[in-house]
Structures are given as C-alpha cells and as structure tokens.
Amino acid sequence: MNDEDNDKTTESPKTEPAPTPLISAADVPIADRPTVHIPEERVYPLSEHARQIAETWSGTSRDHLTGLLGEDGVAKRLGIAEQLDVEVYTDGGDGGTDLRYRGATIDVKTVGRHRSNPDLTVDAYSPLNADYYALASRIGETDIRLIGYAPRDFVANAPTFRYEDRPYHCVEQEYLFPFF
C-alpha cells in the first residue's frame, strides 16, 4: 500500500460531509465518464423552452439551454427522457427538482463548457428539496458528460462558499457517486 492509498483509508468519516462512495467520481477517468448525445431535433424544442424561461425569469436563454441539456442527458441515461419537465413557471423555478426516478427526486446542475473539471455547487439560500443532486457538464453543442451525483445529506453537510454575496454548497468530485 503506498502513501496515497493510506491517505484515503485513514481519513475519519467525521471530517467528511457524509460517508464517501467506495469509488468516487474523481476516481473515474474523464474518458470513462458517460457522455450523452442530444439529437439536433431535440435541441430546437429545448432552445425554445429555454427562451421562454429567459423571458419570464433571470438568466440567458443560453444558460437555460445548458441546464435543460443537462437535465435531458441525465434523464436519457436513467431511461426517463419522456419525463423531462418542459413547463415554464412564472416564478422561474421548478421547486428545486427536475426529475423523478424510482420514487426519488433529482435536481440536475449543469456547468457550461468553460469548466473542465467542475465540482457540484448548489444554492445554500434555498431549501434542499431534491433527494439527489446530479452534476452534468456541457462539453459540446449537443453533448453532455455526466460527472456524478450526491444525496441531499451530502449536499447539506458540504462546505459553503459565497459568490456574488450568495451562499452555495460545494461538493467536490471526491464525494460524488459516479454515473456508470
């Protein structure tokens, strides 16, 4: 056993946000993480939906499209693509959940192409309503890489940081369960 392996086995679970996965998303090489292609004919309706959201809420249609593509990618991977919520809410929100899978709720967080090795960040100024939080990364116009996911307790116990005077939970990839 080398020192690096020993470091992983001696960390006390009490210092972690929650018990860590046996294999974390950080342990999976980027080339082995699932990539989901969103067909071009699916992108147009999602673009229109993103435009409608941007008209009623803050954010750009491009940012909303990135989020919708991430949600669609996770839904496709789970085999529930037909469940993608395409309703436009007047308050801009969806109640903090994007998908339902096997009785659990999932909130998908998607980062744009400017972040190559992201961690999961979740608003700490809103209630954590989802059972799971998934991290996706837009790696092309129509391609999404699935990074990992964490249960609500991981997110709730994760360290927080402030950005533009708002608090956010940050779950490092080391604490994310990988998608297989």
Descriptive notes:
It is a single chain. The protein is an alpha+beta fold and 180 residues long. The protein is 27% helix and 24% strand. It is built from 4 helices and 8 strands. The chain has a 5-stranded mixed sheet. Helix 2 crosses helix 3 (61-78). The relative contact order is 0.20. The model is unreliable at 1-17 (pLDDT under 50).
Keywords:
180 residues; five-stranded mixed β-sheet; 4 helices
Element pattern in H and E: HEHHEEEEEHEE
Termini gap = 27 Å
Number of DSSP strand runs: 8
Structural class: alpha+beta
Strand neighbour order, sheet with most strands: 1-6-5-3-2
Strand content: 15-25%
Gyration radius, rounded? 17 Å
Number of helices: 4
Query: Overall pLDDT, averaged?
Result: 86
Residue runs with pLDDT of under 50 for 5 or more positions: 1-17
| Share of residues in helices | 25-40%
Instruction: Name the shape in a single word.
Output: globular
Q: How many strands, which pairing sense, and closed or not: the largest β-sheet? A: 5 strands, mixed
What is the secondary structure topology, with strand pairs?
Elements: H1 3-10, E1 35-37, H2 40-56, H3 61-78, E2 99-101, E3 104-111, E4 120-123, E5 132-138, E6 143-151, H4 152-157, E7 160-163, E8 166-171
Parallel strand pairs: 3-5
Antiparallel strand pairs: 1-6, 2-3, 4-8, 5-6, 7-8
Helix pairs in contact: 2-3
